[in-house]
Design a protein that fits this description.
Number of helices: 4
Largest sheet: 4 strands, antiparallel
Distance between the termini: 22 Å
Strand content: 15-25%
Helix content: 40-55%
Radius of gyration: 19 Å
Length: 135
Amino acid sequence: MLGGASIFFWALGWDSAIRSTAERVSVTNFLVTSTVAWNDVARVTADDGLIIDLRDGRTIGSVAFGSSLLGTFTGYRTHQRALRLLGEAHRTASQARPGKSNGPVQLDVRFEWRRLLCALLAVYGPLLIIWALSR
């Protein structure tokens, strides 16, 4: 039971992240990764948690940089570094590839089953070995 709770909290918080390259930005929330090209990003804000607004009106939020009551009162000071880094990456990508995309936004959503499998093996693998040796 403790192992299951550990995996749940790992997947919910510790595995949640925002990663970016020169061409794309990816947000991982609870073993689901959403990836979109910077050309399809309209803006990045931290008004109610860190939010990536897409050209078509959809948004991508992050559990790791989510909204909170304390953040509302303090102006999300803990999110400002991530906002600054993502804003710089967005500006750099916009300057490298000027012009707007006219087609539909290509949002790639994937379930990260390999991470879940590795976490399950890390937590339950030793228990399986002990169980097998005790038989």
